[in-house]
Amino acid sequence: MEGTQDDGTLAGVAAAIRVAGIPLRLEILRMMRERRRLSPSQFAAGGGATLRESAYHFRHLRDGGLIVLHDVETSGGTAQHFYALSPMGRAVVGVLPRLAKALAGAD
Question: What is the reported pTM?
Answer without folding.
Answer: 0.85
